Amino acid sequence: MSVAKKIGCYFCTGCGIGDALDMKALKAIATKEQKIPVVKEHAFLCGAEGVAMIRNDLETDAVNAVIIAACSHREKTAEFRFGIELFDRVDLRDKCLWVLDVKEGDETAEEDRQMAAEDYLRLGCVKIKKMNIPDPFLHSDGSKDVLVVGGGLAGLTAARDIALAGYQAVVVEKAETLGGKMNNMLKVTPDNRPPYRDLTDNFIGDLIAQVEGDNRIKVFKNTVVTKTAGQPGRFDVTLKSGGTPLDIRVGSIVVATGFDLYDPAKLPGNLGYGSSPDVVTSAEFEKMAKAGQILRKSDGKPAKRVAFALCAGQRDKAHLDYCSGACCIYSMKQALYVIEQYKQEASTFLIYQEIRTPGQMEDFYRKAQDEGAVFIKGDVAKVTANSGGGVAVEVKDHLLRGSESLDVDLLVLATGMVSTVDTIDPNVASQIGAGRDELPGSVLNLQYRQGPSLPRLGEAGFPDSHFICFPYETRRTGIYVAGPARRPMGIAATMTDATGAALKAIQAVEAVAGGVAVHPRSGDLSFPSYRPEGCTQCKRCTEECPFGAINEDDKGNPLFNPARCRRCSTCMGACPQKIISFANYSVDMISTMLKEIEIPEEDEEKPRILVFACTNDAIPAMDMMGRNRGKISPYIRIIPLRCMGSLSLVWIADAMSKGFDGVLLMGCRHGDDYQCHNVRGSSLAETRLSKVSETLDRLKLESVRVKMMEVNIMDADSLPKAIDGFVEQIAKLKPNPYKGF
Amino acid sequence: MADVHAAGHTILVVGGGISGLTTAVEAAETGYNVLLVERDPHFGGRVAQHNQYFPKLCSPTCGLEINYQRIKNNPRIRYLTLAEVVDIQGGEGNYTVRIRKHPRHVTEACTGCGDCSKACTVEVPDPYNFGMNMVKAIRNNHAMAFPVWFHMDPEYAKSEEAKQVAKVCPVGAIQPEMPPEEVTEQVSAIVWATGWKPYDAEKIRPYGFGQYPNVTTNMRFERMANVYGPTGGKIVRPSDGKEAKNVAMIQCAGSRDHNYLPFCSRICCLASMKQASYVRNQYPDSKVTIFYIDLRAMDRYEAFLQKTRADQGITWIKSKPARIEEDAQGNPVVIGENTLTGERYAIPFDLVVLATGMEPNSALAGKVPYQGAAYDDYGFVTGGVLSAGCAAHPTDVASSVQSATAMAMKAIQVAGRRG
Q1: Which of A128, A361, B157, B265 could pair covalently with B358 via S-S, beta carbons 3.0-4.6 A apart?
Q2: Looking at the predicted complex, does its ipTM rise above 0.95?
């Protein structure tokens, strides 16, 4: 944007600001020192009159950039929403007035507070001067269609919902028919609809017909994805359809490839799989029930006595260490099949560890008991084939506290679900260029520099990130995993999950069409750009991006994919050459800001501590501290960062050269249970920081001057102690010798 | 995003807990207009009262903050607090909704400075902390409350002092005489997300809640463990304030039982494991005993069960205790039979926590005021309007978000239909 900036700085004197601070001096700094052309104040800036004053200045073109010097940027957002990009908030109230440890009447302390307010004003003025209006990244040839990989229950549900919302869907199914594992299912359990006791007919045929009959949905059977390149809004996907390659362009992707059953051959020997044909898996049993007759496999005689071994190869470190969540319920369903078929002659035994029928499905558990299914809390100790067919199941009964042997016609093993999505461990650095290689069997074969697979979370390897608060967020923008491909789940949950993922997929295409970011910085128009001539091909940005947004060319230069980007700015912090920046956030911006802070002379004995704080957790925690009027040292100066991942070591060097006595970094919790909204931001910052000693050594400064701490959003009460503890520690050192240089 | 959706295509979301917030932001970020209606003075609902989430043991505030930021940044979302939907007419695509706005006695001009609260001399039992402590009659519920505007108790508003306190407000935001108001809105889809209430533990007579001070409930315990709770996060016995180092958790208290709630609330087992960690982390020499019927740690949560099991300070007893008595020292004594060993037990504890279940608000005061509304036997909403989260099923946070996102999809399918 080439229009000259006309900055207006609007002070609020309400909430005690005008009483505590020397407004005349502040306005003089804005006007004379910072050369802000329009400087005004109001006693109640967020009131109708105050807001009208600002609006009027914007409408008459007196200003086109606005600084609000009042309260925290988290407050009064509706009042101060002017629809302009050149906008900043200077927090004179929450992080200054409300928290700085100042006794009224103590002139020195009041002077310290005034200095803090003046510095915060300077930070705001410099920031807005350095800020540019982001031009949104827009595609001219984008697509709003959604690719759905997998044509089973999850995929069909997603495709149907995408179409019902008015969008086009492309379903890719590797098998010859749609329906997936549901095709083999006789009946389904009533998880979602009352009465929760009665089995309902398999509806997959209706769903298939609905999808195939909808002209907004294109279906490719016998087809796999061999390559996925590009970015949201412009994913270029190569399909192999019956041997023929086919290129399509889509806007976003739902991965709904479902699950494989845990290989029964790997099951522990005591379960007896393979020892007799009459030991079958739940899937094999279901197929047989669907075919009509429940029979012994050994001799085809009616299987009237059937035992079910739950958690087969599940909740077991040696096999699947998780629970598949659905097996208790489907085993009860299968017991009901036997009872339905053989009436009074049927005997069914469910051998379980814990019965897991959450929610209203407790009714279904009661139904199975009412119908005569026998529940045995215990373990299958041994399975022996009977000479006349059927098997003897030796059970260690935990409640009767003894062993018993059950002669049954069939033993059904409830094996668990294994996701079919290929994942990578994000903690292991990917090989450069790995994205260009095809991984056999990869669901998407992403042409990403960080590899063809989705990053996984935790040991169990689920392809998601913040699975409690934001379960759909994978670490690949515009790609959402649904159903048992994401985590084990039953039929009702799969449908809900697929519907939700379908929403996220169309939300992503709409966001890309508008040039804005999706979660967590929803609506952000900025995106990274870089100065190619400064690049040394160090590859740190392409390696560190938590979302795999950056590819590489053959020479190792970064290739940004803005629509993959979540705007955390980790790339900016990673770049040693300082060449990556955002229109409204850059290394230079923060460097210039921190240099604008006034450092008192050494003999004034007023140390200065710079605090970089994550805007997602640490800053709200500080605001909370403000509400509770926690007291902290007036010697600190806080600069909020988008994410600790954007931390540039240059800022630390600049702060030290400028004469700051210490630098405190407040990022989010990292590790396995990370809370960093950008997944790796705070942990990468910590890694980066391990190299800061080189900088400090070069400056001949003590390494304790720079400290990183993990701040939880609920740490408001402990923050004063943590901050002041650091200030005290720094106070024990000699002042930074660079002061005054 | 082009502004293609006219005001008439608004989605009404009722309830501003984790489910309602999710439906609202997900629909709005897809390009639809949303009206979010919350009965309480602030958003966050039940999750905002929680100290930590299982299995990560992280604060709910962290995720709520992101959702609040998304609301603050999105002009498509309008919201009303202290508001209730009192009548719904019409049908899918074209509902007429009447909403009653209860007086907050504080206008949106409030800057959250807190001067009024300081001036107020009247204290009332804190509903946010289940009445375990006293709070000012004009306040906001907690430091992270959104929206930030304070609110005044209706009874206090009638007092003489309220008029004086009103004069303290530097921006004139306090209006003790603020009347209730009704507004009518046209909306095309309705998502009911009114969540749940902890089951009334006094109804479980054999456990003596309400009779024995050292028998508490899981939600009260959650507040007690919170640094902003009634004890500042100290886990103590309500009777004498003594450190509670020997704590029992009783699962399925009033759940999976035809006398009380016949269904399973899904979260209580995991919540108790989480709460066991609060005790164990606060007092390294503490002991926790968990009485259970089945340990329901579905799918990936199994890892949390295994992690909890590895703690030697936690004892597991498979049993539904028969009753609780109190000994001469004021210790609650849990009495019953261990179904794995067959042994009878009578064990005294410092504190007993009843893992009570979820009663859907839609079975209580939060019924859908619509002729076409349908419920299951337990009062969960099954039809007439869309229902998300614990208004539909007893679910954990992740499943609520899943369900709420799915309902955003169902809602936009209706709202997006033309003609």
Answers
A1: B265
A2: yes
